[in-house]
Amino acid sequence: MCGIVGLHLRDASLYPRLGELLTGMLCEMEDRGQDSAGVAVYGEPRWSPEGHSSVSLLEIMENGAGLADSVGVRLGTSVVGQRLGDTMVLTAPVPSAELLAAVRDVRPDALVAGFGSDVTVLKGVGHPRALAASWGLEGAQGWQGVGHTRMATESAVTPSGAHPYAVGPDQCLVHNGSFANHATIRRELRSAGVRFDSENDTEVGARFVADRLENGRDIETALKELCSTFDGFYTLLVSNSDSFAVVRDAIACKPAVIAETAAWVAMASEYRALSNLPGVRDARIWEPEPEVVYAWTR
Fold it and tell me: Which domains does the chain show, CATH number per domain?
């Protein structure tokens, strides 16, 4: 049992409230998973300024300024390091692929939680409410946010096992459920050169989707291919800078509800996580059908 939340804002006047709204949604799902949690925030200017890219790192113990300086020397430009809870966020005015490569050169063992030009991924072990406070999530701005509260079933409770899994540029995936054949698919992806950071079954789904997107599929096609490849019970929410998509398995075993207004689209494992969103009384609300991909584009 885990909790998923996601919020895609259409009304720019709500952008300053993204963190406030996402925090409320995440904390409503805390009893569905209290061992770890994570969020992906799109568009927060303090964490991912315009014209910059960022990389989120876990299990970094040294001073952020020292690591930022070392990466900056590799890049030949200034790099800013911010510690947000247990996550270290490095930001620089270069493409995300260049920043990521420089980070891996300096710290080849670094655990990358996410990277891109718009997204900041924050993860940690502990109670979701305490983690949200450590990140300063309530004060975040942006146009889109995804969150997850975890009750571990498939792997250890570690930062690497927390969701979201953000393995492609500005991409992330959160998951409630389990994939029965993840070991087989992991072996196939590894044989094709795909790198893994954990033994979590969700990472296999995220790597699969990222591989399909890199090979030219759109998000709907990638998720349809996932449904035909993976066995198990699951609800998935996948996002990137421009899209927000939800899909469930063929039995629709794991709970999910979607709400939509002219101002926003939101998804959660349970309605109570949506109940305080502005204008929810006038929203169209429904339970997603099995293996139907619901997607929205910015």
Answer: 3-44+127-297 (3.60.20.10), 49-117 (3.30.70.80)
